C-alpha cells in the first residue's frame, strides 16, 4: 500500500470486524472502539447492514453494532448492490449453493464496485483445489482495491493512538 492509503475508503468484511473484537476486546480497548466509531461517523469507512447481521456471537460486538445502527451509521444495501452481487456471483461463483455461505461477500464486493471504494477482508485467495472464488480473487478480477492488512485500513481512516 502506498501513502495514498491515507485517502482510501474501505468497506469492512465481517471477518475483520470480528477479528478486531477478538484481538481488541471492547471492554478492554474502549479507546480503539471509540476511534473506530468516530471514523465511521466521519464516513471514512463503511459498515454494511449485511455484515452487522452476520455478527451472531459476542454480545459486546453486537451491542457496539447496535449503537452504530442507532446513530444511523450502518449502510443498507441498495437494489443496485443486490443486482451487482448477482452479476458478480454469476461470473465468479462465490456462493456455496448448499449452505449459501459467502452471500455477504458478494454484497461487499458489489457495494465496493458500485461506490468505487476498497475492501478490507482477511480472506486469502482460493487454492487450486477450491472451486469457489473468494473476496481477493474477485477484487483482483474486477480491479477493486483490497487489503487484508489491518494497518492499511487503520491508516486510511486516520487512526492514531
**Unreliable stretches, pLDDT < 50, 5 or more residues?**
1-5
Distance between the termini: 21 Å
The class by helix and strand makeup works out as alpha/beta
Q: How many separate domains make up the residues?
A: 1
State the CATH superfamily name: 5'-nuclease
Helical fraction equals 40-55%
Named at the architecture level, the CATH assignment is 3-Layer(aba) Sandwich
Strand content: 5-15%
Total beta strands: 5
What is the N-to-C succession of helices and strands?
A: EHHEHHEHHEHEH
In DSSP terms (H or I, runs of 4 or more residues), the helix count works out at 8
Average pLDDT figure: 92
* Overall 3D shape: globular
Radius of gyration: 15 Å
Strand order of the largest sheet: 3-2-1-4-5
How is the main sheet built?
A: 5 strands, parallel
CATH class: Alpha Beta
Kindly identify the CATH topology. Answer: Rossmann fold
Account of the 3D structure:
This protein has 161 residues and is of the alpha/beta class. It is 50% helix and 9% strand. It has a single domain, classed as Rossmann fold (3-Layer(aba) Sandwich). A 5-stranded parallel sheet has the order 3-2-1-4-5. Strand 4, helix 7 and strand 5 form a beta-alpha-beta unit. The protein is globular and about 40 Å long. The two termini are 21 Å apart. The N terminus is likely disordered.
Amino acid at each position: 500500500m502506498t501513502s495514498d492509503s491515507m485517502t482510501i475508503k474501505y468497506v469492512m468484511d465481517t471477518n475483520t470486524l470480528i477479528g478486531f473484537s477478538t484481538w481488541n476486546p471492547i471492554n478492554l480497548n474502549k479507546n480503539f472502539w471509540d476511534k473506530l466509531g468516530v471514523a465511521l461517523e466521519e464516513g471514512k469507512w463503511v459498515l454494511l447492514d449485511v455484515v452487522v447481521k452476520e455478527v451472531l456471537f459476542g454480545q459486546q460486538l453486537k451491542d457496539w453494532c447496535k449503537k452504530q445502527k442507532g446513530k444511523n451509521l450502518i449502510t443498507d444495501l441498495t437494489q443496485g448492490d443486490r443486482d451487482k452481487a448477482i452479476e458478480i456471483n454469476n461470473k465468479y461463483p462465490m456462493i456455496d449453493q448448499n449452505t449459501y455461505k459467502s452471500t455477504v461477500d458478494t454484497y461487499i464486493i458489489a457495494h465496493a464496485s458500485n461506490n468505487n471504494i476498497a475492501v478490507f477482508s482477511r480472506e486469502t485467495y482460493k487454492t487450486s483445489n477450491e472451486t469457489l472464488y473468494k473476496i481477493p480473487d474477485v477484487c483482483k478480477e474486477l480491479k477493486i482495491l483490497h487489503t487484508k492488512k489491518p494497518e492499511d485500513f487503520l491508516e486510511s481512516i486516520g487512526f492514531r493512538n
